[in-house]
Amino acid sequence: MVVTAPNAAAHAASMRPAEYEQPLNERMRTFMRLELIYQQMLYNCEFETDWATRAATSSLLEILSILTRGDVRSDVHKELDLQIENLRQFQSQPEVDTKRLGVLINNLDTSRDEIDAIGTQYLQPLKDSEFLSSIKHRSAIPGGTCEFDLPEYNHWLRQPISRRQEDMAKWLGIIRPVCDAVTEVLWLIRESAQPNEKVAINGMYQHKMRKDGNHRLLRITLPPGSKLYPEISSSQHRFTVRFLDWSTIDSRAVQTGHDVKFKISIC
Fold first, then answer.
1. pLDDT at 190
2. CATH number of the domain within which 181 lies
3. Nearest-CA neighbor of 113 among 212, 181, 51, 179?
4. Which of 123, 134, 185, 205 could bridge 241 with an S-S bond, Cβ 3.0-4.6 Å?
5. DSSP assignment, residue 221?
6. Residue 153 falls inside a structural domain
7. pLDDT computed for residue 121 by the predictor
């Protein structure tokens, strides 16, 4: 049987293990939210339709909102310093791929230099943009970006894709150093721990973490096609995982009464 490209992609996705993540502190929550919205923006920037441009612009405004709420740039800088320090401790150890390690450290050094170079006022051009401010203001109203509300915005959406992408590239250039660094830091954190096989008795698993552990992220992995999903509640010192049995959106998921084999990474 010949599988069409969309069906082949769907089939490949269904065969991958199902991964779920839970941040363990506020910094990781912010980073993961930023990563999600940044990926959405980059994805929609690739398409020519005005609907995709609308979605990309909305993502940009959400990113701006996150970056202006706290000192995310400083948090990213601290994480880069920490990751560089951790990696350099492996340089003198035997059986380490020093070439690959050097590439990782150089990438982090470059990201840190870019964070330093943009300075603390890097978001000011976006904040000062009357065009973006008007969209942000009207976006708080359901349907507030209609043509009769924002004629300038809708005129811009009708411009050739080359012009819209030029403007998007300018905005992306402002946030890219921080967003790319967040993506890189999260990748390193995810790769920092090996998954361990566990069993949730009657669908529940509890774990008490060491007080001296610097844990940032939980990762739960279930087999492909599993009808279960984890509900995770956590604090600094312990977490509980309940595996819920999902059927349809019209019925409430309930905790399974069976033992569940799964993998967990405490990063």
1. 94
2. 1.10.3900.10
3. 181
4. 205
5. E
6. yes
7. 94
Q: How many Å apart are CA 24 and CA 189, to the nearest integer?
A: 12
> Could you tell me if 31 and 114 lie in one domain?
yes
CATH code of 242's domain = 2.60.440.10
pLDDT of residue 187: 95
Domain boundary residue, one of 190, 213, 245: 190
pLDDT at 137: 94
Does residue 89 register a pLDDT over 60? yes
Please give the Cα distance from 14 to 95 (Å, whole number). 36
Quick one: 86 and 140 in the same domain? yes
Q: What is the pTM of this model?
A: 0.89
Domain stops at, among 146, 172, 190? 190
Is the predicted pLDDT of residue 63 greater than 80, yes or no? yes
- Domain of 43, in residue numbers: 24-190
- In tens, the pLDDT along 211-220 reads 766 889 999 9
Which residues are within 8 A (CB) of 167 and not within 5 positions of it... i.e. 6 or more apart?
Answer: 156
Contacts 24+ apart (CB under 8 A), 234-239: 234/22, 234/24, 236/24, 236/25, 236/209, 237/208, 237/209, 237/211, 238/206, 238/207, 238/208, 238/209, 239/22, 239/24, 239/206, 239/207, 239/209
User: What is the end-to-end Cα distance of the chain in Å, rounded?
Assistant: 42
Q: Strand 260-266 to strand 196-200: parallel, antiparallel, or no bridges (unpaired)?
A: antiparallel
Angle at 28 (CA atoms; ends 26, 34), nearest 5 degrees: 105
- Whether 101 is covered by a domain: the verdict is yes
- Residues forming a β-bridge with 197: 263
Based on the structure, what is the number of domains in the chain?
A: 2
Place of tokens 């920037």: 45
Say yes or no: 253 and 237 in one domain.
Answer: yes
Whether residue 10 has pLDDT greater than 70: no
